[in-house]
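USER:
I wish I could look at a protein chain and see how it folds. I am handing you a single protein, as its sequence and its fold in token form. As I understand it, each token names a local backbone shape. I hope you can help me see how the letters and the tokens relate. The protein I mean follows directly.
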Amino acid sequence: MLGTGVGRAGAHRQHSTRPASGYPNPDGWLRGSISQGGFAFQRYNGNGFRSVGARPSGKGLELDFARRISAPVTVDVLAQTTKSGRSIASKANRVARFTNRVGGFAWNGKATVKGAKVADGIYVLRYTIAKRAGKSEVRHVTLERKKGKWRKLRDFERRPGCDAVAGFTLYRPVFGGKSKRSLRIGYRLASAGTTTIVVKRGKKTVKRFKATKASAKKTYVQRVGLKGLKRGDYTVTLTLVRGKAKTTARLVARRL
């Protein structure tokens, strides 16, 4: 059985250096935008979830989460690719939604949204828990559906922790496709330092950005064009050096 109680541990989840503008919302982290189909940097105040997760179960999924507070949870299943699975959806299409959940539950893999269809492709599970004053906390889990079977993929975002990297994201788990969407890389530091970014496909380095002296509390966005990039998974490594301290984080996105 999956964990359902408050406080109980759940299943294991989940180049321009000009600073971008500040956070559009004072709370939450990487809240999904269904209308725009992407994810934007937002400040994190993580006291709603202990963990979120998902694991395959037949043609569906066992969805799990553990809470720190007693508020109910909403889970959205967002398709990141078109029905063919080979192109990026212009917006993250919601195919299923579950509201007022207080513990883990099973999903049969079928759409709950009128007119929607669950096809093979890349998906994001969005877990949302409401907090005080109308604010909310959001977590994501990335999944692939292939030949009707589900499997968890590596993260395209890094949830902030207690270290100097306040945020790190690839905005969406896919890039390329017919829309020729470039690979976007965003990060934000809690403390100033020197950052480097390396992009690899397998063991081959396809892009290395020059070291940047990055300020704290500013958002930096880099872009990688599609020229010369084959289809497949790309690992993006962010390294932050502050004196003798070094922090490294890795994310993965798929080139369609």
Summary: The chain has no helices and 21 strands. The chain has two domains: 16-153, 158-255. The radius of gyration is 18 Å.
